[in-house]
Amino acid sequence: MSKWWVKLEIFLKDGILDPQGKAINSALHSLGFEEVEEVRMGKILRLKIEGETEEDIRDKVRKMSEIFLANPVTENFEIRVEKICE
Amino acid sequence: MSKWWVKLEIFLKDGILDPQGKAINSALHSLGFEEVEEVRMGKILRLKIEGETEEDIRDKVRKMSEIFLANPVTENFEIRVEKICE
Hints:
- The structure is a homodimer.
- By secondary structure, chain A is of the alpha+beta class.
- Chain A is built from 2 helices and 3 strands, in the order βαβαβ.
- Chain A has a single domain, classed as Phosphoribosylformylglycinamidine synthase subunit PurS (Mth169, Chain: A).
- The interface between A and B is medium-sized, with 32 and 32 residues.
């Protein structure tokens, strides 16, 4: 079996208030970065995982996200399979 | 000026203990996902930002990260410029 690096990005759905992102946006403006229009804050997980194919890995990580890692009511997630280690 | 989406990934440097990642790893094992070998937890920010060129955007976001968004002693960051909105 091969080993894979997976990145899982989890963001609050668009339309759901993100106070952390808003606070960062204001702080950036105070620091002079006026060109920033919007900031959304999210979580990212990097997983090292064993599996046969990229499809297999995607299915597993999707399942983990749905039952445990993300909240499907408030959050969207995106899976990126980055490279094979071995 | 164009508008850009930027994603900024921030992870603890390799070698720095990541208790949150370890806790998630254990929880995934308890749920039957034994094929997961390692988990690292990070932050991700999605920024909407105005600027002339991709290089210009990268420079700005690098500066924001170095002075405010990331801790250069303990964290690594990666910038991805994703698409032009307008």
